[in-house]
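Help needed: design a sequence for this.
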C-alpha cells in the first residue's frame, strides 16, 4: 500500500455507476412492461435468461458497490454500501434459486438491481450536496 490518501470519486464517476446499473437493468424491466401491455416475450420470460441478465446487473452494477462496502468494513464501520451489497446479494441468491427450480425469477433480480441503483443514486445525491 502506498502512503497516498485514496482519491475521492467525482460526481461524473458516481453518475456513471447509476447509468451502468440502469442500462443493464433494462431487459429485466422490459419483461414486466411487456407483460403489463399484454405481450409475452419468450426470450425475456425464460428464468435462465433472467438469471443471465441478473448476473450482468449484479456484476456491472454491484462490483463498485462491493468495493465501497469492503472499504467501509476495513474502516470498521458498516454503512449504506455494506447494507445495499448484503441485501442485493441475498435477493440475487433468491433469484438464482428461483431460476434453478424454473420459477419466474425476474422480481428477485429486479429488486437486487433496484437496491443497487438506489445505493448508487444516494451516493450520487450525497456527492451533489457536498459539492
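Sure. Designed sequence:
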Amino acid at each position: 500500500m502506498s502512503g497516498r490518501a485514496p482519491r475521492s470519486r467525482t460526481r461524473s464517476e458516481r453518475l456513471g455507476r447509476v447509468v451502468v446499473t440502469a442500462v443493464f437493468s433494462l431487459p429485466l424491466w422490459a419483461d414486466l412492461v411487456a407483460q403489463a401491455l399484454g405481450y409475452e416475450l419468450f426470450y425475456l420470460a425464460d428464468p435462465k435468461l433472467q438469471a443471465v441478465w441478473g448476473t450482468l446487473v449484479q456484476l456491472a452494477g454491484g462490483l463498485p458497490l462491493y468495493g465501497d462496502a469492503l472499504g467501509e468494513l476495513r474502516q470498521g464501520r458498516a454503512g449504506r454500501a455494506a447494507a445495499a451489497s448484503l441485501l442485493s446479494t441475498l435477493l440475487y441468491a433468491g433469484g438464482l434459486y428461483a431460476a434453478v427450480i424454473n420459477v419466474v425469477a425476474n422480481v428477485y433480480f429486479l429488486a437486487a438491481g433496484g437496491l443497487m441503483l438506489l445505493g448508487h443514486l444516494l451516493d450520487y445525491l450525497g456527492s451533489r450536496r457536498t459539492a
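The longest helix spans residues 47-74.
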